[in-house]
Design brief:
Elements lengths: L1 H31 L16 E5 L18 H8 L2 E5 H9 L15
The structure holds zinc ion (ZN) (2 copies).
Length: 110
């Protein structure tokens, strides 16, 4: 009987641990990318940020779910190909309403 309970507790612990890790990684990525939206300068809420791939490939780097279960090194390598934009600006980029600042190059930090 205690075994089932232990398993449930452990499952809950793991779920929380993963959520905590994701929160931390998201904050790390945002900070790594300069901490603010490249277009409007927004910097209030970490969860409002997306990473937009500069090379125009359709590939998006999902920061909300699966993307954050990768290792930090992989996340960083991916982040180097992206610019940080808030959710609003990111939608506008894809809608063609705004352009990324002229001649933007993905800067490599660190
Ligand atoms: Zn923005
Ligand atoms: Zn995008």
């Amino acid at each position: 009987m205690p075994e089932k309970r232990t398993y449930a507790d452990r499952a809950e612990y793991l779920t929380k641990a993963v959520a905590k890790r994701r929160r931390k990684l998201k904050a790390m990525v945002v900070e790594y990318k300069g901490g603010k939206c490249i277009l409007c300068g927004y910097k209030r809420c970490v969860w409002a940020f997306d990473l937009h791939h500069v090379d125009g490939a359709n590939k998006e780097f999902g920061l909300s779910t699966r993307g954050l279960t990768r290792s930090w090194e992989k996340i960083k390598a991916e982040a180097d190909k992206c610019v940080l934009a808030c959710a609003n600006c990111h939608r506008e980029i894809h809608a063609g309403i705004v352009q990324l600042p002229g001649g933007i190059q993905v800067e490599k930090r660190g």
